[in-house]
Amino acid sequence: MKIIYCLFLSLLLSLVTSHLQAQEPVKIAVFAPIYTDSAFDGSNYKLGNNNLPKAILPGLEFYNGIMLAVDSLKAERKSVEVLFYDSKGSESIYTIIRKPEFQNIAMIIACFNNRNDVKPLADIALHRNIPIISATFPNDGGITENPFFVLINTALKTHIEEIYKHVQRNYSTNNIVYVKRKGALEDMLFSIFSASNKKTASLPLKFKTIELNDNFTSIDLNDQLDSVRQNLVICGSLNEAFGVKVVKSISSDKNYAATVVGMPTWDGLKELDKSDCNGVTLVYTTSYNFPRNLPVITNISQAYKNKLFARPSDMVLKGYESMYHFASLLLAYPTDVINHLSDKAFKISNDFIIEPQKSLSDSSKINYLENKKIYFIKKLDGMYK
Questions:
Q1: Which of 188, 222, 228, 303 lies deepest, with the highest CB count within 10 Å?
Q2: CATH 3.40.50.2300 fits 2-154+291-373, yes or no
Q3: What are the C-alpha distances in Å from 46 to residues 8, 87, 313?
Q4: Coil, strand or helix: which one is 379?
């Protein structure tokens, strides 16, 4: 905790600017939710050495990844100036963007955790014709007609559409059961899946639908399975407890061979690795894939351990990749980077396929840009397959 405290204190002292070189560097503004004002009274950390609120950790880890990437850029003598801002600090975004230091910004990288924070930064990016990279938040924030807003963590609609295609390609002959939880969000997920089935150019999927409440029993679900065929169960809910219960129910009866397709919220869900979920093949989607045995990830992890005495979380890696990849592209294409965001020249771990999302009312207009690359993760008994 003392190490984290020291890191937090150093963060407070470095929130304004980090220079990599003095010769007219390109400026990149980074926003992340650190909640500095709730943790500090002036320069004094007021929450005690043994208390670091969970709300602070994602933004702090993203910041640590950003700064690790700054070290890499500096080692390569790439001329960048990074300005870091706490999006949950006392200063509003409208105050920050009026500061003299914020002038001549060439790119914004944002770690959002609230839908309402998206539009103010997206608006200033549009006004100045500079890209804003939304690195972690899978929500477009209601953005329309803004071709400079770049959604890296793919929207839920795209995940559902890709799940449909994946099931159609790989499991169309299975006994397919769509499990729907009662709720408005679940209604939306099912409508996206159903719409994909209606507009497919191939043969539509044949599937059964069952709606369950949170108190369902194993019998309620398993009665829909087939003991002599392979079963494919789609869990159409973001509720993690509901998803775990679906897997546990199927695992409890070994008479059924089943694969369960879940939502992106299953990424890192440790409950699914426990023994009461064994025997069920799990498949889920993610926009980010950081194989820990990949040499570049091993190197980043070692550098992080040497500097901060810890294993980097996915938020650290997202911060690192966002800064290194997009800053390098900005330097390579200073006047045209928006058209090169999918380039793989500075790839860290992920392939980005960034495509325009057209307006439904006017196809000549672009609402925003979205990363369409989806990874499918398969696990069995807690092991990646």
A1: 222
A2: yes
A3: 12, 20, 25
A4: strand
End-to-end CA distance of the chain: 35
- List, for residues 41-69, the tens digit of each pLDDT value: 666 776 666 667 788 899 999 999 999 99
Judge whether 33 and 87 are in contact, CB under 8 Å: yes
Rounded Cα distance, 252 and 20, in Å: 56
Closest CA to 220 of 212, 232, 228, 209: 212
Task: Determine the average pLDDT of the residues in 186-200.
Answer: 97
| Residue-range domain boundaries for the chain | 2-154+291-373, 156-286
- Are the C-beta atoms of residues 259 and 171 closer than 8 Å to each other? yes
Mean pLDDT, the chain, as a whole number? 91
Q: How far is CA 250 from CA 10, 169, 191, 365, in A?
A: 49, 23, 25, 46
CATH of domain 156-286: 3.40.50.2300
Mean pLDDT of 345-356: 96
Rounded to 5 degrees, what angle do the CA atoms 232, 206, 378 make? 25
| pLDDT at residue 19, rounded to an integer | 55
Distance CA(162)–CA(370), nearest Å, equals 14
Please spell the DSSP secondary structure of 321-362, one letter per residue. HHHHHHHHHHHHSTTTGGG-TT--TT-SS----EEEEE-SS-
